[in-house]
Amino acid sequence: MTAVRCSRWSVGGSALVRHRPSGSVAHVSLLLALLTLFGTVQHSHGYLDDRQPVYLEAKIGSYVILDCPVDFPQDEPIPYVLHWNKDNKPVFTLYDGVLNAYETFIGRVTLLNNDILYGKASLNLTSIRESDNGWYECKVIFPNRVPNKRNNGTWFHISVLGGTLLRIPPVNQTVLEGDPAFFHCVVQNPETMFVKWYKDNVSLLEYYDLSHRSMMGPDGSLTINPTQMSDLGFFTCEVRNTANDTQSASAYLNVQYKAKVVYAPKEVYIPFGESAVLDCHFRSNPPLKNLRWEKDGFLFDPYNVQVGKRCLVSLA
Ligand SMILES: *[C@@H]1O[C@H](CO)[C@@H](O)[C@H](O)[C@H]1NC(C)=O
Ligand SMILES: *[C@@H]1O[C@H](CO)[C@@H](O)[C@H](O)[C@H]1NC(C)=O
Ligand SMILES: *[C@@H]1O[C@H](CO)[C@@H](O)[C@H](O)[C@H]1NC(C)=O
Ligand SMILES: *[C@@H]1O[C@H](CO)[C@@H](O)[C@H](O)[C@H]1NC(C)=O
Ligand SMILES: *[C@@H]1O[C@H](CO)[C@@H](O)[C@H](O)[C@H]1NC(C)=O
């Protein structure tokens, strides 16, 4: 009998070990995109331009697409730097492949550089809040070229609508299990408005455990402390005024935790010379980075599997 132990760093799913003729090893690794914070501030000079500004309207809690092209000289793709400013303050930059969002825009902007419908410098600004009202400029700079600009930038004006009840809606959040989570739900007038929170469309009060770990601030915002794996889901805040008008907005809470093996049989009896399956179930968030099998305390790979044992490790 052979003891094969399944060790950690894996996700929800299941891994199988098959014993079959010939030796090989399973090794899965996922590259995690690394977002490094990087700061550059470039101020723009005035609203004059050859292009007409684009006027957009967006409701609180919704999203808006700011469609901006990268106008390559001679249509030849060359390196570029991207600056998005709002009222002369940085919103978002792309510099040397590093994306960076600033202050109140963190977690709310996505660059649509691979969407055929929109220009490569376009932004998706989500979870619209009242303060998003204003002028935005998209500037594309070609650092290795003289002149390094082709035009003066593209201007957008966002008018935020429907802020009668909600001023700041919640924004998606990722936390480590055990850390606190915080969701905005700032109402226009806390004196005359009531906030109710839901998780996955069920009133928060109906989650006995979660409601005991949650606290609502005077402005309607929600703090969960400490978070648990099971808190993962959609949180919705619903604002109601005395006239019974309502407005709601949702955000997703992602709770990350160390990988755990949830089930693996302790002993498996395998008929000599036949294939067998060793089962290993695991859970993890973020997804699998590395999964390893050990045999008798050693990494199970082709180099330390003896010839003649005839084992194959594969992932299902
Ligand atoms: C913009 O983001 C919103 C919210 O995540 C999403 O529903 C929408 O599909 C996105 N739009 C585009 C064009 O990616
Ligand atoms: C929030 O997270 C959900 C679930 O992952 C996703 O569908 C949605 O697009 C995200 N919204 C924003 C604004 O990123
Ligand atoms: C930029 O704007 C100025 C006026 O502010 C104008 O004279 C100039 O032609 C513009 N440049 C381009 C490339 O559009
Ligand atoms: C909550 O309700 C909305 C709208 O009725 C629905 O689209 C969504 O799938 C529901 N979410 C869950 C987690 O049940
Ligand atoms: C407000 O709406 C709730 C549920 O939709 C209802 O039960 C209640 O009677 C309404 N109150 C008023 C004052 O209309």
From TrEMBL:
GO terms for biological process: axon guidance; dendrite self-avoidance; homophilic cell adhesion via plasma membrane adhesion molecules. Residues 1-46 form the signal peptide. SUPFAM superfamilies: Immunoglobulin. Pfam families: Ig_3, V-set. The keyword Protease does not apply. GO terms for cellular component: axon; plasma membrane. One of its GO terms (molecular function) is cell-cell adhesion mediator activity. Keywords: Immunoglobulin domain, Signal. The keyword Repeat does not apply. Residues 61-140, 163-254, 259-316 form the Ig-like domain. InterPro entries: Ig-like_dom (IPR007110), Ig-like_dom_sf (IPR036179), Ig-like_fold (IPR013783), Ig_sub (IPR003599), Ig_V-set (IPR013106). This is Ig-like domain-containing protein.
